Amino acid sequence: xxxxxxxxxxFILKTIIYLLLLVLFIxxxxxxxxFEIYGALAGKLAIITLWIIxxxxxxxxxxxxxxxxxxxxxxxxxxxxxxILMFVLVLIHALWSRGFGYILKGPPTSIxxxxxxxxxxxxxxxxxxxxxNDFAVKKLKKWxxxxxxxxxxxxxxxxxxxxxxxxxxxIFGLKLDTEYTxxxxxxxILILLVQAASWVYYKKSKNV
Length: 208
Description:
The protein has 208 residues and is mostly helical. 81% of the residues lie in helices and 3% in strands.
């Protein structure tokens, strides 16, 4: 049963990825400023996808059972496709939110802080996507896992990318957006804390 669910989810995720790539390709023939709205939506969906990607690892380290175990297995089997989906969503977000504007109006004279955080996060995700295959796992061995620890740094960078997009609040010299901070930055922080707690639990349970 779990195998069938996993295969169906895998098919759905692959279909969504291919459709998004097709839409992205077609969009280059209709470059407009109003793509920014949909670019912002893609960015939000990318963050939610990242949260989902974190779930199976957390559940596995907490050694859950029953229905949570089933959720962990299904998500873990589709983690690569979820990672690729997130990567494509971020690419759409970057191009539609800013890239198309640069094409129409030219490059900016300065880059906002939140864009720098987002750019660094995206650059870090490139080697993760490129090594999300069995060949890379086999060749890199322990280094594969070490490389993919960068996902924690990506989440950390996304906290700043989402929160520093306004001027509602100022902390330590950073201008923060209250709405984005509560909607995306704080949930990401909570997920990182839960991940840390799951690692502590996992290490302790191994020593028992």
